[in-house]
Amino acid sequence: FPGPFTDVVTTNLKLRNPSDRKVCFKVKTTAPRRYCVRPNSGIIDPGSSVIVSVMLQPFDYDPNEKSKHKFMVQTTYAPPNISDMEAVWKEAKPDELMDSKLRCVFEMPNENDKMNDIDASKPAPVLNTSKQDGPMPKSHSVSLNDTETRKLVEECKRLQAEIMKLTDENRHLRDEGLRLRKVAHSDKSGSPTALALRDNGSNSLPSLLVVIAAIFIGFFLGKFIL
Fold first, then answer.
1. Are 159 and 216 in contact (CB under 8 A)?
2. Distance between CA atoms of residues 75 and 19, nearest Å
3. Which stretches are annotated as coiled coil (predicted)?
């Protein structure tokens, strides 16, 4: 299972029946609360394959802790006219059961890169090739969504800071306009034309800042929706 383990990590297990008889299978684990297996049991027709998705639930990874989690794939030949799968396993004799054991390995991304460099010339394992037959793991899309969400949150914070800055500047300009209007009224030597120009200049600046703030908000909302 490749890390990080902040989201669900899915690994596909391919089970193939090379015999000429139907085979019943069951997947067991030593840590049932840590994993979700779909399907965890079933029947494989002769010469057919089944993809089993093993989903590791999120947890706090400790590189110093050795993994003791194991899986066991138990199989037996299917009797004719199967009606109850539970009865098949209960009535199966020990010498009729076959099993394969697997040990779980947790790897962080830097460890995966080293393994890929070493095994670049080796053929791909069966578990990797089975991904073409089964559904793609969801962990990659979830990680991308999380990364995109973090970018949008950072962009939102930046735009909010810009809006607050523009609001403060707008308030400052409004106060400055009021002060200029008071000065203009108290200035007897000032002409009506000059007073009108001051009023228009002070009113146009807040309107321009409001337009700029609206453009920032529209840009953020459009990027978030897309």
1. yes
2. 12
3. 149-176
Calpha distance 1→104 (Å, rounded): 7
Residue 211 lies in a domain: no
Residue 192 backbone class (left: φ over 0; alpha: ψ -120 to 50; beta: rest): alpha
Q: Which residues contact 172 (CB under 8 A, 6 or more apart)?
A: none
* Residues paired with residue 35 on neighbouring β-strands, in sequence order: 56
Interatomic CA distance for residues 64 and 130, integer angstroms: 31
Beta bridge partners of 16: 49
Give the pLDDT of residue 52: 94
What CA–CA distance (Å, rounded) separates 125 from 117? Answer: 15
| Helix axis angle, 192-225 to 139-186, nearest 10° | 170
- Same domain, yes or no: 13 and 83: yes
Residue 26 sits in the same domain as residue 94:
yes
**27-31, 84-88, 183-187: the lowest-pLDDT one:** 183-187
In 3D space, the residue among 55, 49, 54, 53 whose CA is nearest the CA of residue 15 turns out to be: 49
Instruction: Tell me how many domains the chain contains.
Output: 2
Distance of CA 190 to the CA centre of its chain: 66
* The predicted structure's pLDDT at residue 173: 81
Q: Is the confidence at residue 18, as pLDDT, over 90?
A: yes
Q: What are the backbone angles phi and psi of residue 33, rounded to the nearest 5°?
A: -80, -15
